[in-house]
Write the structure tokens for this entry.
Amino acid sequence: MNNLELRYLESLSKQYPTIAAASTEIINLQAILSLPKGTEHFITDIHGESEQFNHVLKNGSGSVRRKIDEEFGNTLSIKDKKSLATLIYYPKEKLDIMLRDEDESTIEDWYKITLHRLVQITKRVSSKYTRSKVRKALPKDFAYIIDELITEKAEIQDKEAYYNEIINTIIRIGRAPQFIVALSNLIQRLVIDHLHIVGDIFDRGSGPHIIMDTLRNYHSVDVQWGNHDIVWMGAASGHLACIANVIRVSAKYGNLDTLEEGYGINLIPLATFAMEVYKDTNCDAFSIKYNTEYDTKDLSLDMKMHKAITIIQFKLEGQLIMRRPEFEMNDRLLLEHINYENNTITIDGVEYHMKDTDFPTVNKERPYELTAEEEQVMERLSHAFLKCEKLKKHVKFLFSKGSLYKIYNSNLLYHGCMPMDENGDFKEVNVYGKMYRGKALYDILEYYARKGYYSNDDLQEKLKGQDIMWYIWTGPNSPVFGKDKMATFERYFVEEKESHKEVKNSYYSLLDNEEIINKILTEFELDIDKSHIVNGHVPVELKKGESPVKCGGKLLIIDGGFSKAYQEKTGIAGYTLVANSHGMRLVAHEPFESTESAIINESDIVSDSIILETTTMRQKIMDTDIGADLRESIRQLEVLLVAYKNGIIMEKM
């Protein structure tokens, strides 16, 4: 035994100071290995749809209702099952309604029935976990009581009175509502053991800040960055081009309130500038895609702000593209190709008529130069983003819990694609003078993204990292974008649809090629016979017959249209991939009406399950990454036991 090993065992002995303590932990860990693996949920492309996202978490992608059906079968009516499910999803709100409508003479009976039912469901959802893990999840106020109720066997005669007395006392002392809330939240917590977010929390919908607050408080979660996430991360670092993109997209979808009210970012400098400089400017090309909650009295100003920030964005991006020739994006330098005399632009050698050339701040000789007023606006906006404490907390969470890809229980998770050429070879990409491909490309881009946010000692390196975050958002060889261009300019200004076309990376035409998928899995050192790729980013148009299941189930594209902006295209409202001890299933969700309707009308998201894979033997914790860690802990403890028994390390009695 060398000195390093000895020092490690000495350190471990402080935690397990005796043979008895080490032996007990070995027995405990060995037993845990035999438990069923926890349930993982994979969700992607949420795009700010906070109400639907929160409901999917609350109902466990339909798991809560399935547990109710399993527990009660035909002994409960469909109406009672719906009521019980809704109570579990929204206990506080549903209790308010029940207490208002229920007759006082029957409320005690309702409490008794409801509490017994909730205890039964809690027992069922907690059965696959150790008592220790369940105890850690228990709410502090009721931990002891819940532990007693879910571990006692009411059918044993001498315990039945004890069990019933607990319930009766809870009701008698007026704690039934609080206890119902506690049990409901515990059920929600236990139906999902671990949550994977496979990119794109931000943009389009109005509630990304609400989603981020939920995720920050979630018990177990990881995030694979999508391009809409990384541009917000870049904006939080103070990067001007990223800030302009974030504000433009928010303006386009009528979500400036998300910035102003959700994050407290002051947009008055932009509003004042737009009202003055764009007051007599045609803004028809900058319509707002607003929802029913949008206040249309702001429409004219928002269109002016939309146009003002878009022009600023094109200027800033032009500066960046010229600053980074290695990005190979000169085809996006479009302001210099406008012919203002005949209102046309030449793109890729083709001349197009422009819908709008009324650009009061564009200098025709130096089109990418900001005016003094634009510089002042961006300086103040940058300051607002940098000083926003809420955004800072959210972005730090994304860095701490997130990455460009994740390997978890033999599954490879990423948002966009593996950049490839038409032959299926990994593309080589120039990143600041060095060529990278495959996994190495992901790693170097993530390395620079982290420097772009955290590096404050070397401002040149910080700027490199910030520019990379913008490139990840929109670059032609970005793994999370995966198209030859982002045709933002063309969609605003050119009528001809052929100019809007964004050509997907060859990866997307090779998804059913097993040789290609195996090559990707091998690149990440995964077993090609039992691993999967879980992929977001590109909506699956189910109503056109597209399937989310590719390459015989080795690759799963789970973007089904969580965002309302995509639901007409996809025909559904998102997927959840569920991986549990029995296998994998894909859950397709119908559109969510509203939280209010879910509470009042007890309407749930109707979800259809597709069984993807069923294991012949139920998977256990020993088959997971956590199991590998536990086995290593057992090995180390067994070495400690030998050291104790041989007197190499003395017990601390």
Remarks:
- The mean pLDDT is 92.
- The first strand starts at residue 40 and ends at 43.
- The radius of gyration is 28 Å.
